[in-house]
Design brief:
about 450 residues; alpha/beta; Rossmann fold; 7-stranded mixed sheet; 5-stranded mixed sheet; 13 helices
């Protein structure tokens, strides 16, 4: 599917393919670098053993991921970036990275940081879906969670900094729901609790929690606090950890008020995907705090989420000199369609090209903006409200996911039966929204 996105949008792309054990048993694994644009031919290629890139043959824990070992030979990096520059055009907002399967551990590398010094614009990662999620109108509800477990985080300072970025970086009204551990709550509330459109949530009584939502304490707390409202973006600042070779967020366990047993904190990709879907969120941003433990684990987590569901997924690393400016640039690019004219070494972003003002070709069941035509006007009106019901947003995300899976990866016309079924589901959902969703502002004005 990334190849289809590249082709449809004529994107200047660095493609890195794994060759070795998966294709030829007994062969030393190598990364094959290729530069191409859209449907055009490969204009430059080079192969590098994965061990030279700093990748272990097998990853079993964080001990096998050494951030300081990650590197691209300087000559290869320079030639790849020169080849991209030769294919670029003034209208190109970014360069793109494609990691086709089989990928092994290639996604663990900080490609953006390793190449940024040679690029004049961001390096973004191609999404796994041709569909752009329907991002709602002038208001955003953002869930911001900042937490530490075994590795320290300055929670009050980090929370305040990220909150101000959200409130000041975009042209939209942002309603910010903030979640921190109980011991940090008072300090965070004192810093940002008095700012408009910011709610610092206190840990609830165990009896007040919505039952059956999740075994994870943070997920259950957020769903309970939102009280049926949808979230547009979930932003989590946390260290990463590896469970085997799979990345996870190292959030601490939570002991709810009045409870005897704490609820689990560590959050893996499956729980993240499920939670985003139920909240109706179209975006996930993960921030790796200063002194991040195993940022490679966070790269694996966000990559896995990006492969599993349509939407915007990004990792923002604070261990770069201009971390605050880079987050501001990321938000303006994704939300306001204003791409920066510079590289972003601390940002890994997997996004549909249309989020950064690149017009896609015609895609089945899509609007000219690249969003799903199955999301009806009535549903879009409800999504644009400041307090969108979670079930409406979750239904829209489910429709997008079904459509994304129904679009053939080779660009062929979708099965007419599948299209008919999707349209029928869309019509049923539209009827349900019209009947049960709260009235929009325009409907209220008409009735009054």
């Amino acid at each position: 599917m990334p190849a289809l996105v590249r082709s449809e949008n004529d994107l200047p792309t660095l493609r890195v393919r794994l060759q070795g054990k998966e294709t030829k048993p007994g062969m030393e694994p190598v990364a094959k670098f290729q530069v191409l644009r859209g449907r055009g031919p490969v204009t430059w290629t080079e192969s590098v053993p994965t061990q030279v890139l700093g990748l272990a043959d097998w990853i079993r824990s964080a001990r096998d991921v050494h951030e300081s070992d990650f590197a691209i030979p300087s000559s290869v990096a320079a030639e790849a970036c020169d080849a991209l520059a030769r294919l670029s055009r003034p209208a190109d907002a970014a360069y793109w990275l494609e990691l086709p399967p089989p990928r092994g551990y290639l996604h663990f590398l900080p490609w953006e940081r390793l190449l940024s010094g040679l690029l004049d614009r961001p390096l973004l990662r191609l999404p796994n879906f041709t569909l752009r999620p329907n991002a709602p109108g002038p208001t955003l509800r953002v869930v911001l969670t900042v937490a530490q477990s075994k590795w320290p985080v300055d929670v009050p300072a980090t929370t305040a900094g990220l909150a101000r970025q959200w409130l000041e970086s975009t042209g939209r009204q942002v309603d910010l729901d903030v979640f921190v551990a109980p011991e940090e709550w008072a300090a965070v509330r004192d810093r940002i609790g008095g700012i408009g459109h910011v709610t610092v949530h206190d840990l609830p009584q165990a009896t007040a929690l919505i039952s059956g939502v999740s075994n994870n304490g943070w997920v259950t707390w957020v769903r309970t606090a939102l009280a049926g409202r949808a979230a547009d973006v979930v932003h989590i600042a946390s260290h990463g950890t590896l469970i085997g070779d799979r990345g996870a967020l190292a959030l601490p366990a939570l002991l709810m008020r009045g409870a005897d047993i704490p609820m689990a904190g560590t959050l893996g990709s499956v729980d993240v995907c499920t939670s985003l879907g139920r909240a109706g969120a179209w975006g996930l941003i993960v921030t790796a705090p200063e002194g991040s433990h195993c940022p490679g684990a966070l790269r694996d987590l966000v990559d896995t989420v990006a492969q599993a569901r349509p939407g915007v997924v990004a990792l923002h690393e604070m261990d770069v000199p201009d971390a605050a400016d880079e987050l501001r640039a990321l938000l303006r690019m994704l939300i306001d369609g204003e791409p920066p004219n510079r590289s972003l070494p601390g940002v890994l972003c997997c996004s549909h090209p249309s989020f950064i003002a690149v017009a896609p070709d015609e895609t089945p069941l899509c609007t000219p903006e690249g969003t799903s035509s199955l999301i009806t006007e009535a549903t879009q009106d409800v999504l644009a409200q400041s307090d969108t019901p979670a079930w409406v947003a979750a239904g829209a995300r489910a429709l997008e996911a079904m459509q994304a899976r129904a679009i053939p990866t080779d660009g062929a016309t979708p099965d007419p039966a599948a299209v008919a079924a999707l349209k029928e589901v869309s019509a049923m959902f539209d009827e349900h929204v019209r009947t049960f969703a709260p009235p929009t502002a325009s409907e209220t004005e008409v009735t009054s």
